[in-house]
## 1
Amino acid sequence: MDLTTIKRPVFNINISEYTGLILDAGEEGVVKSISPSKYPFFNFHTDNIEDSYTYVKELRYKVESEIVYFEDFSYFNLSDLDNNIIAIREVVVEMVRLQEYPSRLLKFSDVH
């Protein structure tokens, strides 16, 4: 691929000083096909993983996993209308929260 021929639509979004997001539609005139990933490309943050899980279930989104709890964060996956996987995550600030749900803690090997 000749990098001098790359044209818009290419979007560069600065997230922070060291992090950015590039959205690239690819070469013009090339037929593209949708091939959803079975792994999330990005995630959305929530302050309450249980409420978020209940909310998306009530909206009848296609939830792809139960909530998975780790020591420092929790997440679950859902899919959009194109079957792309999106993660919803909560960073656990206090270990006290984990003590409320000891039976729900899963090891990484239990879910993969």
Note: Residues 35-104 form a domain with the 2,3-Dihydroxybiphenyl 1,2-Dioxygenase; domain 1 fold (CATH 3.10.180.10).
## 2
Amino acid sequence: MARRRQQQQQQQPPPTSFAASSAVLSAKATGIAASQDIGLMNQRQQRQEMHEEERKQIEVEARRMEQQKRQEEERKRTETEKAEVEDEYHHSSIERNKPRLPIIKEVLDHHGQTQARLSCFLSGIWSVNSSNNPDVFTVNFDDPTFKDVLKHPWDHPEWSMPSRINILLELLYWETKLSTTPDVFQFELFRCIHRIARKYEMIPPSLYLRDLVKEGNDQVWGGGYADIYQGRTVNGELACLKVLRVFTTLESSKQLFKEFSQEVLVWSQLEHPNILPFLGINMDLFPGRYCLVSPWCGHGSVMNYLSMHPEVDKMEIIKDILIGLQYLHTRNPPVVHGDLKGANILVSERRRCCLADFGLAGMNTLQTLSSASGNPRGSTRWMAPELFDYTITSRPSMSTDMYALGCTTLEIFTGAPPFSEIKHDAAVTFRVMNGFRPSRPAQGFTDGLWQAVERCWVHFNDRPSIQGFLYEFERIT
């Protein structure tokens, strides 16, 4: 009996062994609970990540659909505009044959003497009474034989004389100016004027301003390539005299005249409340230098005006600029400004913003108006990145105008040029070419306006048209 009790006692675990087992079981339970907690946390994190990914995908899809919607709206507007242009073209001959008020113009030679008298009672048909020939002859712009003359007037003896070329330039100028429909034929007339002007180094006589007076001998302002003087017209109205600060050799004078005549001819065809009017040219006040004449804007540039009148509604300023640029870009063919910035936007006496400073450039498919001040492709801080790439044939375009529009909008709201925190233009060029764009100011911009501005700074294939920007601008205002 004693031996059996002893064996049973030996088989029973000691009390300490039982406590240890309990501790092990407790630890295992704790570990399982911790593992479950971690698993739940991971699941929650995964669900959050999935929700975040779904949210991003929804935002991307929403942006894509919004972009498609804008592109579709722009496509419809483009098709509508194209249809309108085609309709104008089909009806242009009818429009040209409508009676117009009697128009009588004198053709002056370079001495200011009357060379001929032009009369028009029916659109497209002119009577020419030359001062040295008593016979009156008629010019019909719809006559196929005269259209052949327009292609190469120097190949036709009756038109190749300098006196007749002067008359022909005046006829072309006024027929283009008075045309009621900006159609393909009108542009052909303009191209003909341009060809004749380049070949003969002549400008339509009506564009010369005589009896112009300079106010004082000191310039009011000097830019990168021109000096500004104040003058008065024969009617006593104040005028701005922009005198090109260019001195050329005999060899380069022809090229300069081509560039100068290009600006004159394109600018002379523009008429819009938000475009600075062109009054003419003068060659007498500044011998040997070209002088462009426009109305005097006493308020100066829009940046000067805003500094003097900070209470002005900047959104109205932007709207004026948009409407002016829309007029240029929707011409047939489009006109490219080429150097849009605050300094090139003047405020008229009626406090209306006018796009100005159409500088010297050539004409290719588009009519181009770009400033030659400093950089032949524009002003550095307002220039699109593709204009800095001299490995490609890049020139100012409607797309680069849109990039500059975004920069100009920023300039107007901040009162400072783009990248004002960077001192040197070379550093700005480097940053722009590496994809950097101006940062959003702390004040002044709503989310909608800033997004519209940022879209002007994307790749040139994805920038909005002026119609698209104006549509977005009207929607957010």
Note: The radius of gyration is 36 Å.
## 3
Amino acid sequence: MSESEMRAVKKEITSGFSESAVHYEKYADLQKQMADRLIASLEPWTAIIPEGPIIELGCGTGFVTEGLLELYPDRKIECVDIAPGMIDYCQQKFADNDNVTFQVKDAEELIPDQPEYALTISGFTPHWFQNPAITLKKWLEATKPGGLLLTSFPGSESFPQWREYCQQLGIPYTGNILPDVEEMVIKMSLGPAQVDYYEDTIYQSFESARNFFEYLKKIGAGTQTEGRGLTKREMNLLINEWDASSTGDTVKVSWHGVFLAVKRDYD
């Protein structure tokens, strides 16, 4: 992909999420569930991380932010998101919290070159990075020794049903490439760091496969980052095959959920 193509994709991602903030807050149930679990995994570390500010990458409408404010009511928290609409939403939602700031910022750019943060956290965002492993590695380097990088994302084994029906029909699978857990762990393990991770499968149910694709668009997550899109005929074939092959009254969609914790050791 050329640099101009990458800029165009990033612009589309930004626009999609920016325009969907209200819908994201209301309908992104899976993302809210993953945020709650990410905060729960942080609780044992609450009193252990060093002094210093916290940064949240890709704050969205503040699912993770809410948990951070409960755990760290007196700690400086910086929240960034590439989508102005998400930042506007959070600024209104958390207007009464003096210890948190919100800024429109691309987490893949302007990464500090010195350790600055006690905690770097990102809930269900890294899969939108052009190179998740490299970007998170740089943010680990911007995390203080003794500090923690904590993140969650959908992994490469997500959506097996979608892949299967595309293969059966001989049409392109148009889901985005998602991070490979093994690659992520290997790259994050280079240097002074302790890496731990957990993965499982999370299921969603929809009345039809069409509702699943509408859900992605509704919350701003419908941007296809590579390849051509399906024609209307191909999309109808996929939806009809998926619906017909499902048992019961609903279509099940499975996500490969990954939680990654990296403790920055002292150099």
Note: Strands lie at 54-57, 77-81, 100-104, 117-123, 143-154, 193-206, 251-264.
